[in-house]
Give the backbone structure.
Amino acid sequence: MQWEHLTSRQFAQAVQDTRVCVITMGVIERHGEHLPLGTDFMIAHKIACLAAEREDAVVFPPFYFGQIYEARCFPGTVTIKPTLLLELIQGVLDEIGRNGFHKIVVYNGHGGNTHLLRFLAQCSLWEKRPYSLYLPTQSLTPERQKKWQEMRETATGGHACETETSISLGNHPGLVHMAQVPEEPAPPMGRLQHLPPTFAGISWYSDYPHHYAGDARSATADKGRALVQWQVDTLAEYIAAVKADQAVPALESEFFERAQGIGSL
Ligand SMILES: [Zn+2]
């Protein structure tokens, strides 16, 4: 169920019936020369909506503010001041919780959000809230990942690559410009290779200054449809596991009781 499609009365019922909300996290950024700026949030939201048909859940409207500072040098990128971004996402999660969801699945559609979202999850131990956060850390189970590895024709990727372009061809072919796919693949340039293994804010840009990583020439809609189905299956199973889980809320309660009791012995 899509949050924005429900009436207020239907929504209240859906909260009672599902108890789980899925929020997808994407960004608006350049995707090579051939994919639309909204690729990440459009893909993640579509997968979540399909998964929520399989395993009942309410899906929050597409959310497209995230960590994408490394693409500020390209037209069309939308970024938010770091401290405001944290407060914004936290405020949205709190609002989902205020509406009655005790469990929120944060489904990430953008690699650059990984550290941000894990930090937000860690922040949930700062103060007790009436909901628990669940971040799936794999979009495919190992078996499905193996199937995709067998199907794909390129060994590397990461951005606007065979994977993302195939999904886009499957989902919204009218927005994909295959004629614009670069003639040369984009392997990492390794411009920080002189350093010992390093993470710097400029790391991504140092490897991929054109915001294109991999080789999209072998992308097809058939591959994309297969991949979407595997991702939908994986997320639907994850939502079912979250519904059944009692450990995270129980451990959070135990943790906060202990945290509040510090100094009282
Ligand atoms: Zn992307």
Observations:
- The chain has a mean pLDDT of 96.
- The chain has one domain: 3-261.
- Residues 221-244 form the longest helix (24 residues).
